[in-house]
UniProtKB/TrEMBL annotation:
It comes from Enterovirga aerilata. SUPFAM superfamilies: DNA breaking-rejoining enzymes (SSF56349). InterPro entries: DNA_brk_join_enz, Integrase-like_cat_sf, Integrase_catalytic, Integrase_recombinase_N, Phage_Integrase. Keywords: DNA integration, DNA recombination, DNA-binding. This is Tyrosine-type recombinase/integrase. Gene3D superfamilies: 1.10.150.130, Intergrase catalytic core (1.10.443.10). The lineage of its organism: Bacteria, Pseudomonadati, Pseudomonadota, Alphaproteobacteria, Hyphomicrobiales.
Amino acid sequence: MKQQTLLHGVHVVKRPHADGSVAVHYYHRKTRMKLPGMPGSAEFAAALRAAEEAMRRPVTVATNVSALIRGYCASAEWKRLAESTRANERLVLKAVEDKWGTLPVAVFRSKKIRARVIEWRDEIAEKHPRAADARVGAFARVLAWALDRGLVDDNPLAGIKNVYRSERADLIWLPEHVAAMSKVCGPELRMALALALHTGQRQADILKLRWDQYDGRAIRLKQGKTKRNVYVPCTKALKTVLDAVPEEKRTGTVVKNSLGGVYLKRSFIAMWSRAYKKAGLPTGEEQLHFHDLRGTAVTMLSRAGCLPQEIATITGHSLVSVNRILEVYLSRTAELAESAIEKLDAFQETNPT
């Protein structure tokens, strides 16, 4: 329906029925309040106004979980989160509200609710352990926020352990993985690979990185997620990669799409996924993510002279994780630092810019 695309701040949910019909439901996007009636009707307009007014009012009294979530999503803590984090959290909190939205806040005086939530988590975890942890974690954060403001008497979900045990900090790209990926990447993805490999920054920050943030020796940027200003010294290999780009092309973002423009997140993910599959890299539980290049970057930054404490600040790892990665992988990634320049030179001879 064309009208649905013009509803600012309204989330449209379509649910197909067994008879082939489709039910359409409307929700206020920020408060997740259900909006009765059809767009354009008096009932719908009144509900939309009420939701907007509720969003502007500070939450001083909450009767159920839905009200707590609404208050949390209007809080200063929420606004300080990165937009990408808020987008993910909204989806998770929607699942929490669907299950627990009508639950009265009075139940949080009893520890019994903890067992009920863990049982819910375990059901989800049978197929989706990370999603299960995310939902309980988000629920606990809402209750922690509410406890600080006297909206609930206790947070019985505090301290619930995750069911997902994979240590992604120990899963990093090794030389053979990087070599396989490099063979199938075009120049745009290869630049992103080099930046991730040698700086340890998140994908979003790499795609936004501009040439004026590189001074010939280091990269300075403000991380989108942490809002932290970081100074990343360039490894010899990364400096060679960046300096090889002709001066006239050093405008705008460092990583560009095939048309020379800014890479949209979804387009980059699609291109990266296709290259990963073509490279024949691990799948399943051992699948490597772009994010895992941060682990490899720990070893590269160490070879560039950074101390473990400095590396932890740059990449966002804990100091324990940094030391563990260096202990296990530093020697195994040596050839990446030693041969990167040689491989780049060989590539440029056959693939001029």
